[in-house]
Design goal:
The chain is an alpha+beta fold. It folds into two domains: 58-106 and 337-383, 2-Layer Sandwich (Alpha-D-Glucose-1,6-Bisphosphate, Chain A, domain 4); 132-313, no CATH class. Helix content is 29%, strand content 40%. The chain has helices spanning 2-12, 15-41, 69-83, 109-128, 317-336, 365-383; strands at residues 58-65, 88-91, 96-103, 132-139, 143-144, 148-150, 156-158, 162-172, 179-190, 193-200, 206-208, 211-230, 236-242, 246-248, 255-259, 266-270, 276-279, 295-313, 340-349, 352-361. A five-stranded antiparallel β-sheet has the order 1-20-19-3-2, covered by helices on one side. Strands 4, 11, 12, 13 and 18 form a five-stranded antiparallel β-sheet that branches. It has a four-stranded antiparallel β-sheet with strand order 5-8-9-10, with no helix packed on it. Strand 12 and strand 13 (236-242) form a beta hairpin. Helix 4 packs antiparallel against helix 5. The longest helix has 27 residues, at 15-41. It starts with a helix and ends with a helix.
C-alpha cells in the first residue's frame, strides 16, 4: 500500500502533471467564459444553463400589527442575526426603517485569488525548469566533501557541505525474496560536524538548503578505480572512484574526472583545462603547468556494493506548492461558499407595519428563499 502512495506522491510532484492540471483549468475557464454563447447554440441542454442575473432576488412582504416600531425593528434585527451577522441600520425614522445584512462579504475575492494563483503557478513551473536531477553512487561510510553535482548543461555545482552515507539496507516482504524498498541513512556534514542525519527512501527525501536527496535504486556491485596521486610536496593520496566520478586534487581547486576504464589503464580528464591523461601502474604527469607537479598512477580496480541516490534541485517547488494550495482554497470558496445579502424594510402605517424582505445569493437560491420565509415567520409570531 505504501508503494502505491509513494508512486502517487511522485506523480503529483512532477512538472508534467502540473502542466496537465493547468491545461484542464484553462479549458474549464474557457468553457465558463463561453457558456453564454454555447447556450444559444445548444438550447435546452441541461449541461449548459445560465441565470438571467448573477444572483437571485426575492421581495416578500408581510403585514404585522402593533404600535411600537422600535420593538418590531428589534425583533427583526434578532431574527436577521440568527442567519446573518448583525444587520446594519441604514435608514431610520420618517415612517421607514431599512436594514441590510451580509454574509460571505469577501467570497467574491476568491475568484481573483484562484485565477491569480494560476499565474503564480505558471511562474513556479517556469522557474522549476532551471532545476535538475543528478544521480550518485555511495558506499557505506563514504563522504563526498564537498557535495558536487552536474546540472542539465553538464556544469558542475558545488555545495558548501559534505554528504556522508552511514549505511544502507534492503527491506523484503515478510517471508519472501521480493524487495519492498531500499533505504539509506545519510548525514549532512558542515565544518566536520554532522548537522542533520536522516533515513531516506524512494518517497522520503533528505531536505537540506535547496536540494532534496531521495533513494533511487541499488547497484549491487560498482567497479572502482584506485588512483594514487603524489603531490608536489611528495604526499600521497589514494582515491577510489567509479567511472565518470569527479575528484579534487589535494592542495588546490582543480577537479579531475575518471573516465574510459580499461583493464590495465584509465583516462583522466581535467575539468579546468582540455588536458587528457592515460594512466597505468607507472606514475605519469599532465603537460599542463598547473598539473605538472602531480603524479598519477593506477593501483588497480576493486568492486564495492553501493547505494544509488537521486539529488533533485527544484527552485520553483515552493512557489508551485503554495500556488496549488491557494488555488484550491480559492476555487473551494468559489464553488462551496456564497455571497448572501438580505434587505429588510419596515414601513409604518396606521396601527400596523409592513415588513418587506428581499435577498440575493450567488449559490443555492432556494436557501435564501427559505431564510426569508423563516425570518418573516419568526417576526410575525413574536409581534402577535
Amino acid at each position: 500500500m505504501k508503494r502505491v502512495f509513494t508512486t502517487i506522491f511522485n506523480q503529483i510532484a512532477s512538472i508534467t502533471l502540473t502542466i496537465i492540471i493547468l491545461s484542464a483549468i484553462s479549458l474549464l475557464i474557457g468553457l465558463q467564459l463561453a457558456t453564454p454563447k454555447l447556450q444559444a447554440v445548444f438550447k435546452g441542454s441541461r449541461w449548459i444553463t445560465v441565470q438571467e442575473d448573477g444572483a437571485t432576488f426575492w421581495m416578500v412582504s408581510e403585514v404585522i400589527g402593533g404600535r411600537d416600531v422600535d420593538n418590531v425593528v428589534r425583533i427583526l434585527t434578532d431574527a436577521l442575526t440568527r442567519h446573518f451577522k448583525k444587520p446594519k441600520l441604514i435608514r431610520g425614522g420618517s415612517g421607514i426603517h431599512a436594514l441590510i445584512a451580509v454574509r460571505g462579504r469577501y467570497t467574491p475575492l476568491a475568484f481573483y485569488l484562484a485565477h491569480l494563483t494560476i499565474l503564480t503557478l505558471v511562474i513556479g513551473v517556469i522557474i522549476s525548469l532551471r532545476g535538475f536531477t543528478y544521480y550518485i553512487d555511495m558506499a557505506e561510510g563514504q563522504v563526498i566533501d564537498p557535495l558536487a553535482v552536474l546540472d542539465n548543461n553538464r556544469h558542475e555545482k558545488k555545495f558548501d557541505f559534505a554528504l556522508r552515507c552511514e549505511d544502507f539496507s534492503t527491506i523484503y516482504y515478510e517471508g519472501t525474496n521480493t524487495v519492498l524498498k531500499h533505504q539509506s541513512t545519510l548525514s549532512i556534514v558542515e565544518d566536520g560536524k554532522k548537522v542533520k542525519t536522516q533515513m531516506v527512501d524512494y518517497g522520503t527525501p533528505l531536505n537540506y538548503e535547496t536540494i532534496d536527496i531521495y533513494q533511487n535504486r541499488f547497484v549491487n556491485r560498482i567497479q572502482l578505480a584506485r588512483i594514487q596521486v603524489i603531490t608536489p610536496q611528495g604526499d600521497k593520496q589514494l582515491y577510489e572512484v567509479k567511472n565518470g566520478e569527479i575528484f579534487q586534487l589535494p592542495g588546490n581547486n582543480i577537479s579531475i574526472r575518471a573516465a574510459a576504464f580499461r583493464p590495465n589503464s584509465l583516462q583522466l580528464l581535467s575539468l579546468n583545462s582540455p588536458d587528457r591523461l592515460w594512466i597505468s601502474l607507472s606514475p605519469v604527469r599532465f603537460f599542463n603547468p598547473a598539473l605538472s607537479g602531480y603524479q598519477f598512477s593506477l593501483f588497480g580496480y576493486t568492486f564495492n556494493e553501493m547505494t544509488n541516490l537521486k539529488v533533485i534541485y527544484d527552485p520553483g517547488k515552493g512557489i508551485v506548492w503554495y500556488s496549488f494550495l491557494s488555488m484550491i482554497a480559492g476555487f473551494s470558496i468559489m464553488f462551496f461558499f456564497s455571497h448572501r445579502r438580505l434587505w429588510a424594510i419596515v414601513e409604518e402605517q396606521t396601527d400596523e407595519y409592513v415588513v418587506k424582505l428581499g435577498g440575493s445569493t450567488t449559490k443555492d437560491p432556494q436557501s435564501i428563499r427559505k431564510t426569508i420565509e423563516a425570518i418573516l415567520h419568526e417576526v410575525k409570531e413574536r409581534t402577535t
